[in-house]
Amino acid sequence: MLSRVADRIFWMSRQMERAENMARILGVTSNLVLFGASERQDENLRAPLTITGTAAPFAAKHEALTLNALITFLALDETNPSSIYSCLRDARDNAHAVRWQITSEMWETLNATWLEVRSMRRERVIGAGATQFFDWVKERSHLFRGVTYGTIVRGEAFNFSRLGTFLERADNTARILDVKYHILLPAVEDVGGALDYYQWAALLRSVSAFETYRALYRDQIFPIKVAELLVLEQRMPRSLAACVAELNQSLERVEGEHDHTVKRLAGELLSRLTHADIEEIFRGGLHEFLTTCLADFTELGIRIQRAYLGMV
Amino acid sequence: MQRRHYDEMHAADRAVRPHYRAFAEWLAATPAERVAEKRREADLLFHRVGITFAVYGDQQGAERLIPFDTIPRIIPRAEWELLVRGLKQRVAALNCFLHDVYHSQEILKAGVIPPEQVLTNSAYQVAMLGLDLPHQVYAHVAGIDLIRHDDGIWYVLEDNLRTPSGVSYMLENRKMMMRLFPELFERQRVHPVEHYPALLLETLRDIAPHAMRDATVVVMTPGQYNSAYFEHAFLAQQMGVELVEGADLFVKDGHVFMRTTGGRQRVDVIYRRIDDAFLDPLAFREDSLLGVPGLLSVYRAGNVSLANAIGSGVADDKSTYAYVPDMIRFYLGEEPLLANVPTWQCRRAEDLAYVNGHLAELVVKEVQGSGGYGMLIGPASTAAQIEAFRERLNANPANYIAQPTLSLSTCPTFVERGIAPRHVDLRPFVLSGREVKLVPGGLSRVALDEGSLVVNSSQGGGTKDTWVVD
Fold it and tell me: SS3 for B251?
């Protein structure tokens, strides 16, 4: 497959996944802010900006950190390249450039999503309709992934689409966990308190892991188990271990001229996450562990770009 | 005085011509509401598939649908076979001419064509001098525009030998008709056109460098904002080859390669849908971002083939057009089977004087123009438009040719108030590799405005399916 085409497909899938993750983060934040206790409001509002590394551009545009300002900036701002609006637009543009290499169902899904978000009234997204909007974004992302999985031939386009999806997802789960853990850290000894319960449940819900936690642990919510679920649990489809396993599977199916450094790094990551122990990770510091993982995800993205997709 | 146009469906006594009879019976027996519903369905389908056409100069970068008319343009087989002979003869002569002007230039030495007509032409590429091409073919894909005049005779209106487009509409129109009205195809045998992409691929493989087998063929596009991007992508997909842009290709060690996820892959034949000037910034326009630096050197070394060849445009220039009958006599020793429209060359003083005296009756065109841009249709223009055009003409006479306003035949067409005659032309696509081939049919374009003779899709023309029937 042409590198240019693979590049478009890779980014198309990344941007769709990014839109979904942004919707997840904002959805949970809205809930915490609207229904949670007041003492952590500011931290909760700041978290999405920290997770996405957009605190500075936000401050340049908005004076006060309010929920409406946050949603305006992260969901709708067309000049913010990581807003949901921008991600849906860019995913559609990438699909448009390669619409002959993807299935018409994939193209139509992304095109319809873009046309709909473009014509959406702001009032529908800010305020009472916010939750519905975030659910809609998640649904469109689910639909796109399902349509992709269900229609595209198992070949390069499929492989690079999967690489985009799971690299983005791994990166996101690591960021969400890192930031939320940081906020909740002072209260770790306080496990089981009402506030913490909401906070931890919200974190789990943001990655669709609340029911999974209940089913797998049949226990109260303990921070260390939350971390174990989101980092090491292979069966949990948004965990780092599961995403990295998917990345390795896709990489096995592609062949490039100088791609050994890509495959080596992906293999190292998998091995690190497969043969790990959560208590050991905690002894070294969860934040330090996640920081290393995030740096490796970034490096993996760069190497994929170099080995298969052309210019970095 | 109202001129009487040739009607493709009805004879002078209003009787339906024999080859239209089956269709006419079906139309009479089918409720108008059903036909109208099918026409709406066609619009929806075309939109969904995205067969659209970007319009140059449209500020919004709008993609527009080319209107599709559901009444086919039907040609009886015997007549089509005459056209085929004429088309093959014409394209063969044009290819002989191209080979000649880039080699020994016999036709110029013999005084058949004035040398300055060829050698000073902006489409003449000195880089092509002495270069031998596989099978001595230059114009591998030729779109020859034909019209039928009031006298019922077919005329060649122009030859398109650079990057003629429209073949995707020929194919999609047929697919659409078969989908909307399958019963029509049971009533009579319509010769198929669906194998065009296979013939095109065969032609492109025929011209591979060093007569190699298993050549890697690609389609090269200027990109998704080009007006014919849909067609480029469509043909690549139908042939099962890569659709590349200039940035996907690079030159190394005397060959052209494309960048793929698996590393570099050699490219042997490029069906390029970009103009000569943009192909290689080292050789032609250095500001071209669409091309491939070094491509010309690989081409000259014979390690990559281009379709169509560089410099083919010298043969389809509207002032060269006038000499095509002479080319046929000179190279093939035959009389032309297809008629040429009489043409005045404005670069000749006596012709220019005539044209200046008869602007209101003539069609005046730019010699390098295409797409219906920059032309004057005398009888359809106001006095002010004619005078404005006269200034442009006399400022640069060599840039123009003039022809009598030939009338195009009409074909019944759905318009807002029922069915009415509208003018049509026909562009068959002639493929030349090891041999000359074409599918039975072509693109019929129709001028949807009453009385209009401009069928170009960029000027609001529509298209029809074209049937060759037994």
Answer: strand
**Higher per-residue confidence, B311 vs B345:** B311
Residue numbers of A between 23 and 42 with CB closer than 8 Å to B: none
Residue tagged 């880039």 (tokens): B102
DSSP line for A235-303: TSTTSHHHHHHHHHHHHHH---TT-HHHHHHHHHHHHHHHT--HHHHHHH-HHHHHHHHHHHHHHHHHH
Q: How many CB pairs under 8 A join A and B?
A: 46
pLDDT for res A123: 78
Q: Where are the domains of chain A?
A: 1-152, 157-312
pLDDT score recorded for residue B58: 39
CA distance linking residue B346 with residue B392, whole number of Å:
12
B61 φ/ψ sector (left φ>0, alpha ψ -120 to 50, else beta):
left
- Within an 8 Å CB–CB cutoff, is residue B158 touching chain A? no
Please name the residue that has the structure tokens 């042997």: B268
Q: Determine the longest span between alpha carbons in chain A, in angstroms.
A: 56
- 3-class secondary structure, B33: helix
Residues of B in contact with A256 (CB under 8 A): 261-263
Q: Which residues in B283-310 are b (16+ Cβ under 10 Å) and which e?
A: bbeeebebbbbbbbbbbeeebbbbbbbb
User: What are the pLDDT digits (tens) for B348-363?
Assistant: 899 999 999 999 999 9
Domain architecture of chain B: domains with CATH: 342-405 (3.30.1490.270)
pTM of the model: 0.85
CA distance A260 to chain B (A): 12
Contacts of B385 (CB under 8 A, 6+ apart): B376
- Residue B194, amino acid: E
Residue scoring higher pLDDT (B63 or B260): B260
Strand partners, B65: B52
Return the residue matching tokens 């139509």.
Answer: A108
DSSP A76: I
Structure tokens, B76: 């009886």
pLDDT tens figures, B252-262: 999 999 999 99
| Residues B408 and B148 sit within 8 Å (Cβ to Cβ) | yes
Which residue bears the tokens 């190394």?
B252
Is pLDDT at A190 greater than 70 in this prediction? no
Report the C-alpha gap between B159 and B144 in whole angstroms: 5
- At B80, list the tokens: 């089509």
User: pLDDT tens digits, residue range B421-432?
Assistant: 999 999 999 999
Question: Is B259 an 8 Å CB contact of chain A?
Answer: yes
For B225, nearest residue in chain A (alpha carbons) = A97
Residue B56: exposure state from Cβ atoms within 10 A (0-12, 13-18, ≥19): exposed
Minimum CA–CA partner of A155 in chain B: B261
Is the model more confident about A303 or about A310?
A: A303
Tokens describing residue B316: 């389809």
DSSP letter at A220? -
Residues 6+ apart with CB under 8 A from A29: A44, A45, A47, A48, A67, A70
Tokens of A12: 């198309």
